[in-house]
Amino acid sequence: MAVLPLAVLILSMYFFVMTPVENTITRTMEYEADIFGINASQQPDGEAQIDLKLGEYRKLDAGPIEEFVFFDHPSGRTRITAAMRWKAEHAQSGAGTPNHMGQ
Questions:
Q1: What contacts 37, CB < 8 A, 6 or more positions away?
Q2: How far is Cα 74 from Cα 6, in angstroms, rounded to an integer?
Q3: What is the domain range of residue 34?
Q4: 59 close to 76: Cβ distance less than 8 angstroms
Q5: What does the alpha-carbon distance between residue 2 and residue 46 come to, in Å, rounded to a whole number?
Q6: Using CA of residue 37, residue 41, residue 47, residue 53, what is the dihedral sign?
Q7: What gap in Å lies between CA 33 and CA 54, rounded to an integer?
Q8: Is residue 96 part of a domain?
Q9: Cβ count within 10 A of residue 49
Q10: Whether residue 100 has pLDDT greater than 50
Q11: What is the mean pLDDT of residues 2-29?
């Protein structure tokens, strides 16, 4: 019974240290999911618009340390930048432009 406070302290420290690591893993998977969605839809502008709407309740421009420690999803700026980078890289293929159905 006397070891319980020490065990709680050690576990608390472990989870405190591991939180940024777990957030980074999740953030990386979410970034890859965003890119997969852009590749599937061919609509980077739509991704950017949604990210701006998410900015109404979530900070868009987090600093690198703040994002590393507290964010389990990419910041809005990171997501918008990735969408616009995708658009620039695929501009010559015509991707990201409205199709014949007006979408």
A1: 47
A2: 35
A3: 15-91
A4: yes
A5: 57
A6: negative
A7: 16
A8: no
A9: 13
A10: no
A11: 94
Residue at 27 is within a domain: yes
Is the C-alpha dihedral spanning 50, 77, 38, 70 positive or negative?
A: negative
- Tell me the two tokens of residue 3: 């070891």
**Band of the pLDDT at 95, cuts 50, 70, 90?**
low
Q: What is the pLDDT of residues 37-80, one digit of tens each?
A: 999 999 999 999 999 998 888 888 888 888 888 899 999 999 99
The set of residues, in sequence order, having a beta carbon less than 8 Å from that of 52 and lying 6+ positions away, is 60, 76, 80
What total of structural domains would you count in the chain? 1
- Is residue 31 situated within a structural domain? yes
Indicate the length of the chain as a whole number. 103
Residue 41 belongs to some domain of the structure: yes
Around 14, how many Cα atoms within 13 Å sit in the side-chain half-sphere? 6
